[in-house]
Amino acid sequence: MLGLDACELGAQLLELLRLALCARVLLTDKDGGQLPPDEVLDEAVPTYRAPGRKSLLEIQQLDPDDESLAKYKRVLLGPLPPAVDPSLPNVQVTRLTLMSEQAPGPMTMDLTGELATLKNQVFVLKEGVDYKVKITFKVNKEIVSGLKCLHHTYRQGLRVDKAVYMVGSYGPSTQEYEFITPVEEVPRGALVRGAYVVTSFFTDDDREHHLSWEWGLHICQDWKG
Predict the structure, then answer these.
(1) Are 138 and 7 within 8 A, CB to CB?
(2) Of 200, 213, 201, 224, nearest to 125 (Cα)?
C-alpha cells in the first residue's frame, strides 16, 4: 500500500511528465473545438481541457535516444506493467471509507459488488465530529491524469452540498492506491440532522466516468442513529 506523501509526489511528477510529452499535441491540434457540456465535470473545472492522451507504451518509447529523459521515465514509471485482463477497466474504484477517530470503527462501502444495494444502506455520522474520506482504487493499464472524486449531497430532492476532491495522476500498478481527504467537521444542530442521499462520481481530466453510485447518509445526535 502506497503512503499518501509518496502518492502526492508521484502524482505531481506524473502530471509534469504527461504534460511535457503531450505539449506537441496541444500545439498542433488546430481542429479542437469546445467539448460538449458535462454538468458534473464542468462544475468542478469549468473551462479546463485535458491534453491529448498518450498510452504508457507510447510514452515509454518516445525519444529513446534521450538518455536523461529515458532515465527519468525509468525512475518515475518503472517497467511496463504485466499483462492484465483486457476486460478490466483502466481505473477500478474498490472502496470508500468514512473515518473518524470518535467513531466506533471505520465505515466502509464495497464498490466492487452490486452498487444498487448501497442505496439501502445508511452510514451514520454523529453531528459535530471530525471525519475524513478514504478512497481506495487501482490503475490497471494506462496513466490516468487528474482523477477527481465528486460528492453531490441531496436532502428531500434538493442539492444542499457539493464537494470536489482532486485525487491526482497515477500510473499502472499491481498495488492499490489510497487517497485521504482533509479533515472536515460534520455540521451540528436540529436543522441538519436527518437523512441525506449522496451521489458520488469518480472521473478524470479526460472526462472518463470511471464510477458513479448513490448511498445514504444520516446525521444523528449519536452513533446509533
Answers:
(1) no
(2) 224
Which helix H or strand E contains 21, and what residues bound it? helix 4-21
Q: pTM score, two decimals? A: 0.68
Q: Give the CA-trace dihedral at 115, 121, 125, 131, to 10 degrees.
A: -20
Q: Strands, DSSP E only, in 140-189?
A: 144-155, 158-170, 177-180, 184-185
pLDDT digits (tens, 9 = 90+) for 168-209: 989 888 889 999 999 999 999 999 999 999 999 999 988 889
Edge-to-edge order in the sheet of strand 122-126 = 122-126, 211-220, 194-203, 144-155, 158-170
**In 36-113, which ranges are continuous DSSP H helix?**
39-44, 56-61, 67-77
* Separation CA 90–CA 79 (nearest Å): 17
Confidence of residue 211 (pLDDT cuts 50, 70, 90): very high
